[in-house]
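Narrative of accomplishments. A recurring question from our advisory board has been how the design workflow behaves on a single, concrete structure rather than in aggregate. To address it, we present the structure tokens for one chain from the evaluation set, followed by the sequence designed for it. No filtering or post-editing was applied between the two.
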């Protein structure tokens, strides 16, 4: 659907509350917003576990690298699209979600996010501090989708933060990051990621026909060859309609 018709924008503007998150229903579609400019999350009321937005579908590409992760760390709750997908399709996986905005967490029932249980824990926490203080615990996958009313969160795009991400990832782990269409975010993330994860272990992908950008950072050993990575990357691009922007030598 078109999220930015003049009528819809006018309705959203009337609901905006100084950057506070709010819910908007349009037929079968429920969306999360901080203002009228950006859709933070979208859900089909008749199919709440469906991944409606293209970039969220692409972020499940981590399953091509690890089809049975033990523990996934999700940074940014939003409307819970990825949380609900993982909860439904990965019944043996533990999910930890970090969300700094208590007002976003307060909307979880409206987006039909399951209650906390032995498998799922949604924490009101600052991701930068949480990762820095993680000691012995490690995770298989980090799904980073950290945005607030002003856009990408700068603290979640620093060398120190990505260094902590790499530290808590197990060998073979993967960090998949939504960079939206923010050029500054992409430049910083790719620069830091290249320095920490190494050549060929960072992929910059773009959704075909849209302007959503993703970064994939891989904590893999040197025994994993470019040929292996190329095969996985090719499958990911084909399955999720993605274009490889960098590194071109893997294309």
């Amino acid at each position: 659907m078109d999220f930015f018709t003049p009528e819809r924008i006018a309705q959203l503007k009337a609901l905006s509350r100084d950057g506070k998150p709010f819910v908007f229903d349009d037929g079968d579609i429920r969306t999360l917003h901080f203002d009228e400019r950006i859709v933070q999350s979208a859900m089909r009321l008749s199919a709440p576990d469906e991944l409606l937005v293209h970039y969220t579908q692409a972020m499940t590409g981590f399953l091509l690298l690890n089809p049975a992760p033990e523990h996934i760390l999700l940074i940014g709750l939003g409307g819970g699209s990825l949380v609900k997908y993982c909860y439904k399709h990965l019944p043996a996986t533990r999910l930890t979600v970090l969300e700094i905005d208590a007002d976003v967490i307060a909307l979880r029932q409206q987006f039909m996010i399951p209650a906390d249980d032995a498998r799922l824990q949604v924490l009101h926490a600052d991701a930068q501090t949480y990762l820095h203080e993680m000691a012995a615990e490690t995770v298989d996958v980090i799904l980073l989708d950290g945005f607030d009313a002003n856009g990408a969160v700068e603290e979640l795009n620093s060398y120190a933060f990505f260094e902590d991400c790499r530290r808590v990832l197990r060998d073979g782990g993967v960090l998949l990051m939504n960079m939206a269409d923010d050029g500054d975010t992409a430049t910083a993330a790719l620069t830091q990621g290249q320095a920490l994860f190494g050549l060929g272990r960072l992929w910059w992908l773009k959704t075909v026909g849209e302007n959503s950008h993703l970064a994939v950072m891989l904590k893999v050993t040197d025994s994993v060859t470019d040929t292996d990575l190329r095969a996985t990357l090719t499958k990911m691009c084909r399955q999720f309609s993605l274009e490889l922007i960098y590194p071109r030598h893997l294309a």
